[in-house]
Amino acid sequence: RPQTTLAKQAGQELVNNYGFKKLVVSDPYQAPVGAVLVYGASQAAGHVEIRTQNGFVSDFVSKTPSRRPLIGVFAKS
Predict the structure, then answer these.
(1) Among 5, 31, 42, 59, which residue carries the largest CB count within 10 Å?
(2) What whole-number distance in Å separates Cα of residue 8 and Cα of residue 54?
(3) pTM for this structure?
(4) How many C-beta atoms lie closer than 10 Å to residue 25's C-beta?
(5) CA-to-CA distance for 56 and 35, rounded, in angstroms?
(6) At CB < 8 A and 24+ separation, what contacts does 59-68 make?
């Protein structure tokens, strides 16, 4: 798992250390299944979730993505 202090920092670590690529996707619903979605927040840690066939999952399951601003969608190359 990423070792960054804040969730919103996870994307760059996924690219640098784990072989992920940042995809040109700006709509969470268009992210491929298995992709990691990284969200920002101005004064908070942010959020990370994984796209599933039926929605999104982090420490909970949801049919809808986070409402935070999407920083990026990342997938293994």
Answers:
(1) 31
(2) 23
(3) 0.93
(4) 18
(5) 10
(6) 65/28, 65/29, 65/37, 66/28, 66/37, 66/39, 68/39, 68/40, 68/41
Neighbouring C-beta atoms of residue 70, cutoff 10 Å: 18
CB contact set of 31 (below 8 Å; sequence gap of 6+):
23, 25, 37, 51, 73
What's the average model confidence in pLDDT over 9-33? 96
Is the pLDDT confidence value at 77 over 90? no
SS3 33: coil
Structure tokens given for 52: 């599933």
What lies within 8 Å, CB to CB, of 54 at 6+ separation is 63
Q: Which of 44, 45, 42, 51 is nearest to 73 (CA)?
A: 51
